[in-house]
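To: structure subgroup
Subject: Chain for Friday's discussion

All,

I'm putting the inputs and outputs inline so they're searchable in the archive.
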Amino acid sequence: MDRVATVTRTKGCVAFWDFVKREPGGARRFVSYGTPYALDAGNYVKDYWGEGREASYADFPLLGRGPFGEAVRIRKEDDPNFRPFLFVPRARLHDSPLDIKGAGKSVTVVVWAIQESGNHALAGIWHEGTDLKQDTTAGIQKVERGQRQYALFAGLNKEGSACGHVSENGGSSFQCRYALHKCNSLATSPTVPWDAPAEVLDASWQCFAMTFDHKTQEITGWLNGVSGERWLENPQKDNLLSFAANAWDQGHQPGLDPSFPPDQYYTPPEKKPRLVTPLEGSAELQEFGYTRVTVTRQTRELAALRLNPWWYPHGIYVPKDATSGGPFTIGRVIHSSRSVGFTGWIGGVAVFDRALSEKELLQLAALAQIHK
């Protein structure tokens, strides 16, 4: 089986890094199939805070094998001023096939990885901004608002799940300081020490993926080709998704908070319930495609939000120009908190300009099985 061809011949592949292919000369950077996007090494703390040292390819140890023959390690860095990542600068991707944005556009991101720890970014265009007022932004030299478009994370609120993130405005959602349009696959990845024996590592590769289908208006997380249905009960009690619950309240009770912007309401389709469960008295629990609602004669109260797939009725954020958009990054994203994020091995990153099917994602997931 030609593993690389299986990826690149999948319809819509705009970039695929296997960490084997490099520039033919010069710096010999990792370069993608399709449009040849070369990856630079950078430390965003130095770029934005003026602290820490420069990053180089030496900061990404190689495994010497992987689903496509090689893998890079994202390390658990001890130095708070050192957060290295691999990236394509905005100037080299703006308005190119990798710059998927706008209305009527879909996207898929696939990453073959072994998770050691962490729940943050794997790959995508997801500059979270450095403008949040918090302890870590004290003394910052370069302040920029969020420039989020699309990205795949290693779980976020559900660590180890495949978490897809898409933004319509580059910034925050539902009056929260963070972006909240995200999904979480039902299954989660095991954590494996980065220095586990070779036979253990070879059997531990996982295929993380996210799709955004503009036709169905769904963001879906897939782990090893399987999405699964995930729900969050009592979202009002969740630290972050309580903001989505409030946005649902605002959308169903206009005027509840006159200052709440209508474009931030969260109102998934709720015309006809697909399941009705009687509750105490005359109340009932109505389940719709993306919500569960407790209904009485007088009230409707949100009982649960569906996290996979997640309803997303917007386009993908369009930066106004090449100077305001974010880079495509692998291993980390630019953000105010400067946390360590995901650590482990990454053996392949692919981006497609459409939403892949379950069958296609299962085919790509099978490439993780290098021990057979």
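Points worth raising on Friday:
The chain has a mean pLDDT of 96.
The helical segments are 3-8, 44-49, 90-93, 198-202, 242-252, 358-365.

D.
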